[in-house]
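Inputs:
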Amino acid sequence: MPVKPDILKVTATAKSRLFQVEEIDLRFSNGVERTYERLASRGLGAVMIAAIDEQQNVLLIQEYAAGIEDYLLTLPKGLIDPGEDALQAANRELKEEAGFGAERLEIIKEMTSAPNYMGHKITVVLAQGLYPCRLPGDEPEEMEVTHWPLDQLDELFSRDDFSEGRAIAALYMVRDQLRKAQV
Amino acid sequence: MPVKPDILKVTATAKSRLFQVEEIDLRFSNGVERTYERLASRGLGAVMIAAIDEQQNVLLIQEYAAGIEDYLLTLPKGLIDPGEDALQAANRELKEEAGFGAERLEIIKEMTSAPNYMGHKITVVLAQGLYPCRLPGDEPEEMEVTHWPLDQLDELFSRDDFSEGRAIAALYMVRDQLRKAQV
């Protein structure tokens, strides 16, 4: 690994309810100085849940995404609340968004989303041993849940309404891991 | 697909050099109203390039990511400039960041990053028929390029310094597509 640049200064430049923009002044090891903007990461991180039922289907939710002003198929996900670890948050979000709890939860990978300008991280959790259980969440409307066969990911990823890079990565990783476990 | 919520109002709430934060007031089809914050998407989108050499290695770059204050291994990527299409931008970024041009370029998938609160999209491009060609870019330091075997993705994804969800998704999709083409 190369020598990290020196962080000369971090300055808050804009702030809203959810977002905090910062400028970070850097001096790289070759002497070059740069100022970048980034979103400060707040909170305890987030989880994304790949919940697999007994028939090897993954549970997908249909959710309105305000960033792109459209409904998307994706995996249940949400922020880790104070006092929770990633697995507890995953089980809670699964109950709130998909109406299932999980007997077995396992961390697959901690991912970054856009690391050049965001500190946000999301932990992918594999959930198995599902049982019906619904917790009330803060969603504005109930989410339709689809059970999608894990051996038909190609068809899923060819759909325009399944586009979230982190969800595509999570499903491939989970499929590979479960296939290896079967061998 | 459900009926999309009505967009009652969009209000700019904070602005910096790179980022524009907006509030979006929504009324869902069940009558529930919500206000969400999001980052407005500006510009023409971005590209991420999976460049595969004759030996079936993918070209990785090592880049400092200001959002997480560390170096990461990832795929070359960058913004589409005015006047460029996605394939032209991909070939230019590949030349700037990795020192290679490509004879054959192909769009694999348009991905979203965090669609609940960002409109940003990134187009994954498969690049083949590589030849040495370096264009000067705006990077603060030269990026080290690694040729990583496409049949050793598991080992790559188990590394803590390879964490970008979009890059993991891109490499799995490209590997699957190239395997199918060989059959």
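The helical segments of chain B are 86-98, 153-157, 165-182. Flag for discussion at group meeting.
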